[in-house]
């Protein structure tokens, strides 16, 4: 039986009347799972709505990260709707983003994704963490929906899942340029102090062999539970007792910045390798400047982008949300626009396989004013971005060419 993905204008008007008191509508709340939230756009006669799903951490320690990811999706959808929607097969469609909170828990993400498809008929679900992606990949092909995965974990594309799109670059492209830069500038002795999450462990497993291949040695092997640890001085002291030249760090931006500052306060003068979860632009907000993270290598802030659509996106984001956008916001914003282009080229808003097949062409059809960062296409189900590695040199952010 063919799935009914669409909501007609007449039905939407009745939904709006029922929801006008709050401006949002909610799904039923089950035990241990969140209530779905949506802001149904206004439609004219003959227009229809397509629901797009999102499950991510909207409460708890990772809530700010979750808000960064979904804000890019919402902002793109709002712009598309305000411009009159988009046309497929002679019908004009508008986008409704339906969000569920999974608190960064893989099992909740899977439950939410299933509910989004069953209750809201979403052909695509955005999932911004690897655990949630892996859990959802168990059934998404059978239940016929596409996962728009915001995670740099390379293994998500090694599962043989044809309906998974990886949005950000995979982190396995970073260790070699990170290692070359740090060993040349600071030395070969490495201390490990990444986040204690599975993502941190996977990143470490990718990094250490490259560090050793280029002649380095690991002198301290530790990790930090940012959900529990608030005093970083003891573990940093233990690491510094081994006289490292470089420290590998990463996790949420704010506590990672404070850990790096603790190292400086204890006399560390070496470099930092920063995994892609932590962002320099957010560290600046915590530390006030880049003095304490001089010599760090990590991700280029989107505010430093020279892509043709970056300036407009940054200005709009700051105006609407009152904060500087991160890569999470920017890449998901761009992904939403590419998704719409793929729907137009596939001539369907309801067939995930046909839409997925047009994602590469959708990238190439994207207008330049929506290019927030340089994106050339889709390769092996992952967006192919230009490398965006940066270092802090003399207090300034400098792009590192591979």
Automatic annotation (TrEMBL):
Task: Please give one Pfam family short name.
Answer: Peripla_BP_6
Q: What is the lineage of its organism?
A: Bacteria, Bacillati, Bacillota, Bacilli, Bacillales
Instruction: Provide the protein name.
Output: Ethanolamine utilization protein EutJ
Which ranges form a coiled coil? none
- The answer to whether keyword Signal applies is yes
The similarity annotation says: Belongs to the leucine-binding protein family.
| Domain Leucine-binding protein: residue ranges | 50-361
Recorded hits in InterPro entries, A to Z, give: BCAA_transport, Leu-bd, Peripla_BP_I
SUPFAM superfamilies to which the protein is assigned, alphabetical: Periplasmic binding protein-like I
Which PROSITE patterns does UniProt cross-reference here? PROKAR_LIPOPROTEIN
Region of interest (Disordered), ranges: 23-43
Query: Where does the secretion signal sit in this chain?
Result: 1-21
Organism the protein comes from = Alkalihalophilus marmarensis DSM 21297
Specify whether Signal is a keyword of the entry.
yes
Keywords carried by this UniProt record: Signal
Cited Gene3D superfamilies: 3.40.50.2300
Which CDD domains does the entry mention? Answer: PBP1_ABC_ligand_binding-like
């Amino acid at each position: 039986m063919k799935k009914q993905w669409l909501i007609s204008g007449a039905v939407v008007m009745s939904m709006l009347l029922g929801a006008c008191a709050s401006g949002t509508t909610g799904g039923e709340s089950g035990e241990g799972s969140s209530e779905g939230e949506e802001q149904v756009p206004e439609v004219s006669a003959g227009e229809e709505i397509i629901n797009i799903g999102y499950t991510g951490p909207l409460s708890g320690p990772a809530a700010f990260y979750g808000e960064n990811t979904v804000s890019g999706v919402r902002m793109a959808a709002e712009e598309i709707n305000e411009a009159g929607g988009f046309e497929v097969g002679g019908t004009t469609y508008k986008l409704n983003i339906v969000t569920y909170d999974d608190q960064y828990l893989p099992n909740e993400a899977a439950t939410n994704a299933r509910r989004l498809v069953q209750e809201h008929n979403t052909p695509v679900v955005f999932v911004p963490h690897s655990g949630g992606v892996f859990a959802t990949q168990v059934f998404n092909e059978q239940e016929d929906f596409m996962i728009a995965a915001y995670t740099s974990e390379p293994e998500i594309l090694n599962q043989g899942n044809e309906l998974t799109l990886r949005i950000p670059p995979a982190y396995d492209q970073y260790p070699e340029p990170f290692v070359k830069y740090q060993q040349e500038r600071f030395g070969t002795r490495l201390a490990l102090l990444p986040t204690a999450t599975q993502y941190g462990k996977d990143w470490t497993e990718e990094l250490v062999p490259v560090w050793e291949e280029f002649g380095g040695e690991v002198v301290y092997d530790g990790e930090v539970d940012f959900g529990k640890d608030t005093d970083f001085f003891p573990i940093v002291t233990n690491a510094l007792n081994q006289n490292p030249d470089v420290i590998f760090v990463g996790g949420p931006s704010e506590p990672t910045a404070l850990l790096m500052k603790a190292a400086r306060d204890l006399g560390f003068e070496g470099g930092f390798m920063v995994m892609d979860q932590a962002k320099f632009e957010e560290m600046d907000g915590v530390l006030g400047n880049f003095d304490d993270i001089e010599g760090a290598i990590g991700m280029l802030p989107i505010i430093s982008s020279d892509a043709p659509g970056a300036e407009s996106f940054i200005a709009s984001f700051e105006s609407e949300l009152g904060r500087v956008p991160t890569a999470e916001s920017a890449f998901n914003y761009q992904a939403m626009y590419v998704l719409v282009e793929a729907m137009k080229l596939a001539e369907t808003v309801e067939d995930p396989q046909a839409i997925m097949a047009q994602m590469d062409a959708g990238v190439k059809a994207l207008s330049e004013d929506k290019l927030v960062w340089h994106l050339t296409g889709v390769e092996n189900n992952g967006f192919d971005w230009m490398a965006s590695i940066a270092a802090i040199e003399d207090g300034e952010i400098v792009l590192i060419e591979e």
